[in-house]
C-alpha cells in the first residue's frame, strides 16, 4: 500500500467534512483496498456500511450518519451560527416513511416532507428546510429570532422564502421578521412593545453608534447579551453617559430579564413612558 494513497484518502475525507460515503470515495478513485488499509491503521473508521470517517470527525455528524438522519431545526441552526434560544436535545430529520431511528435519548425526530430534497450523502439540512422546521417546532418568538438571524447573516433570501410553500406559520414569521435586529434577544422585544402604540426604531443611530431600540423621541432600551463584559461593558457605560448628556433616558436590561422576566422589563418601560421620559423636552 503506497503511503501517498493513504494521504490522498485522508485529504478527501477532510475535504468532505470528515465523513464521506464510501461509494463516493471509490468513485473519486480511492480503491476499497486503500479504504480498508486506512481503517486498519486507525487513519479512518467505518460508520455503518455506507460511511467512512476520520477519527476526529464531528460527533454530531457521526450520530447522523449512524442513524441515517440529517441534522436540522435548531440543532443545525446553531451549527450555522444562528441565534438559538433552545439548546436542549438534538433535532434531526428522517424520511416521512422511515421506521424507528436510533438517535440519542431526548432527540427530536422530524418527519415532515422537506421543502428542498435531501441529497443521499447529506448529513445536515439546507437552511430552507431548517427554517421551515424551526417555524413549526419552536414558540413564535424563538422561531422569529432564528429567522431574523438567518436573514441578518444573509443565509437565505426573502424573495426565495416567499416563493417556497413554507406554510402559514412560517409566512407569519417571515412577515414579522426584521433582518436588521442586532441579536436574537431584540427579535423578542419588538413584537412585545407594539401594544405601546409608540414609534419604536430598532438599531437607531445615536451619538456615533446604534442603540437597540429608540422608543418615542428620547427613551432608549439597551439589551445586554453575554458579551457585554470587559471592554464592551466600558464602551457601553461611556455611550450611556453620552446619551444622558444629550437628553436621552437609557434603560438597560439583561438576557435573563428578557427571556425569563419580561414582566419586570415591561414594568420599567411603562413607568418611564408614564413619566414622559420618551418625549423630547
UniProtKB/TrEMBL annotation:
Protein name according to UniProt: DUF559 domain-containing protein
Pfam families: DUF559
Gene3D superfamilies, per database record: VSR Endonuclease
DUF559 domain boundaries: 199-267
InterPro entries: DUF559 (IPR007569)
Amino acid at each position: 500500500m503506497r503511503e501517498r494513497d493513504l494521504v490522498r484518502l485522508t485529504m478527501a475525507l477532510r475535504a468532505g467534512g470528515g465523513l464521506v460515503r464510501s461509494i463516493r470515495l471509490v468513485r473519486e478513485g480511492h480503491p476499497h483496498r486503500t479504504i480498508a488499509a486506512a481503517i486498519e491503521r486507525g487513519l479512518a473508521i467505518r460508520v455503518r456500511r455506507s460511511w467512512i470517517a476520520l477519527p476526529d470527525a464531528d460527533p454530531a455528524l457521526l450520530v447522523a450518519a449512524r442513524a441515517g438522519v440529517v441534522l436540522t431545526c435548531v440543532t443545525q441552526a446553531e451549527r450555522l451560527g444562528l441565534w438559538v434560544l433552545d439548546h436542549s436535545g438534538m433535532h434531526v430529520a428522517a424520511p416521512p416513511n422511515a421506521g424507528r431511528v436510533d438517535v440519542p435519548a431526548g432527540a427530536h425526530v422530524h418527519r415532515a416532507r422537506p421543502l428542498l430534497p435531501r441529497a443521499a450523502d447529506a448529513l445536515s439540512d439546507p437552511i430552507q428546510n431548517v427554517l421551515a422546521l424551526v417555524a413549526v417546532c419552536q414558540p413564535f418568538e424563538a422561531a422569529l429570532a432564528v429567522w431574523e438571524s438567518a436573514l441578518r447573516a444573509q443565509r437565505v433570501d426573502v424573495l426565495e422564502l416567499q416563493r417556497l410553500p413554507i406554510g402559514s406559520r412560517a409566512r407569519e414569521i417571515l412577515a414579522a421578521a426584521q433582518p436588521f435586529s442586532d441579536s436574537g434577544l431584540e427579535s423578542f422585544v419588538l413584537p412585545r412593545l407594539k401594544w405601546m402604540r409608540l414609534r419604536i426604531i430598532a438599531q437607531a443611530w445615536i451619538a456615533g453608534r446604534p442603540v437597540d431600540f429608540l422608543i418615542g423621541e428620547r427613551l432608549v432600551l439597551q439589551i445586554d447579551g453575554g458579551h457585554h463584559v470587559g471592554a464592551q461593558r466600558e464602551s457601553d457605560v461611556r455611550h450611556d453617559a453620552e446619551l444622558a448628556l444629550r437628553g436621552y433616558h437609557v434603560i438597560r436590561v439583561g438576557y435573563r430579564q428578557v427571556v425569563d422576566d419580561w414582566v419586570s422589563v415591561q414594568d420599567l418601560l411603562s413607568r418611564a413612558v408614564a413619566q414622559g421620559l420618551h418625549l423630547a423636552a
